[in-house]
């Protein structure tokens, strides 16, 4: 490890000790300050492979990722309650402090999806939608304006909060549905969706994440699209990492690693080699999309810096 990596790991572990010392991780001045500092630290451009750190450090990283996931869930529950208290909740989404990041991430995912799908998908599923389903709401409002969204979450209180946000809206209330269930118990229903998003916090360790991916591979329709949120470099201190080699049963199409303030990497894959009629290469809005992925950087609104590094597997091998 070089000196920059040593400083990064030292800073992260120091913050881990502080975060793990909190009696609860509900939003508060101290919790918010500590987590914000951690996020800022993990947006470092210092390249590091967390999987190559010592076993002792990796054990702490694993615990840190779970603590961050718990804190994120509590933050979303807090702001879902706050936003839901307004007469028109969807007009107040910007109260959430990371709303702009979701706008960028959703636009990135829409751009990827536009390259893979020939027509606008009819049914999309989001697994792990949570109490504040910003991704589904932004995609449904800004990008996929006729698509039905099926949101799956294991927590009934999360779905109740999410439903409270959407119910007053005359459009989304008819296109957005919430299912309280473990996705591992969903079988034939998965075939109805042309596109499935897998949230970063669904499957908080490698074994669980792989089991979920294998379940999706077994029950998604051939040719349907899976978009997964992962992490890369120092961002792996915050979120679980998906290895493309774990996507058995899928053809990996693209991997995007952000280098600005978006935290999650995005992996897009297609279920096996038999394309579904509505999801065949070409792009459902190709007239508005650049012909090469490398040009997408200018297609996504950002305030500064390069939006992402990328590896587009299908283009590299063609």
UniProtKB/TrEMBL annotation:
Its EC number is 2.5.1.43. It holds the Pfam family NAS. It catalyses: 3 S-adenosyl-L-methionine = nicotianamine + 3 S-methyl-5'-thioadenosine + 3 H(+). Gene3D superfamilies: Vaccinia Virus protein VP39. PROSITE patterns: NAS (PS51142). GO terms for biological process: nicotianamine biosynthetic process. It is an enzyme of class 2 (transferase). Signal peptide: none annotated. The keyword tRNA-binding does not apply. Keywords: S-adenosyl-L-methionine, Transferase. GO terms for molecular function: nicotianamine synthase activity. Synthesizes nicotianamine, a polyamine which serves as a sensor for the physiological iron status within the plant, and/or might be involved in the transport of iron. Belongs to the nicotianamine synthase (NAS)-like family. This is Nicotianamine synthase. It comes from Rubroshorea leprosula.
């Amino acid at each position: 490890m070089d000196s920059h990596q040593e400083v990064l790991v030292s800073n992260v572990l120091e913050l881990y000790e502080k975060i793990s010392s909190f009696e609860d991780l509900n939003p508060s001045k101290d919790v918010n300050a500590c987590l914000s500092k951690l996020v800022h630290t993990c947006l470092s451009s210092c390249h590091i492979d967390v999987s190559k750190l010592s076993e002792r450090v990796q054990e702490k990283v694993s615990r840190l990722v779970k603590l961050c996931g718990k804190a994120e869930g509590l933050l979303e529950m807090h702001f879902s309650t706050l936003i839901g208290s307004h007469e028109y909740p969807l007009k107040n989404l910007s109260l959430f402090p990371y709303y702009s990041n979701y706008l960028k991430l959703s636009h990135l995912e829409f751009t990827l999806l536009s390259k893979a799908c020939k027509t606008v998908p009819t049914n999309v599923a989001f697994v792990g939608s949570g109490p504040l389903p910003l991704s589904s709401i932004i995609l449904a409002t800004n990008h996929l304006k006729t698509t039905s969204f099926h949101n799956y979450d294991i927590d009934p209180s999360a779905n109740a909060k999410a439903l409270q946000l959407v119910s007053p809206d005359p459009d989304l209330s008819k296109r957005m549905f919430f299912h309280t269930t473990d996705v591992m118990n969903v079988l034939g229903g998965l075939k109805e969706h042309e596109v499935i998003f897998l949230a970063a916090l669904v499957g908080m360790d490698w074994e669980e994440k792989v089991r979920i991916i294998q379940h999706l591979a077994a029950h998604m329709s051939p040719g349907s699209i899976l978009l997964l949120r992962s992490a890369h470099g120092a961002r792996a201190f915050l979120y679980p990492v998906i290895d493309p080699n774990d996507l058995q049963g899928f053809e990996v199409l693209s991997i995007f690693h952000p280098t600005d303030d978006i935290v999650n990497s995005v992996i897009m894959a297609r279920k096996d080699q038999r394309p579904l009629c509505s999801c065949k290469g070409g792009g459902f809005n190709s007239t508005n999309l650049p012909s090469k992925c490398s040009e997408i950087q200018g297609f996504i609104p950002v305030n500064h810096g390069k939006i992402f590094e990328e590896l587009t597997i299908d283009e590299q091998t063609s």
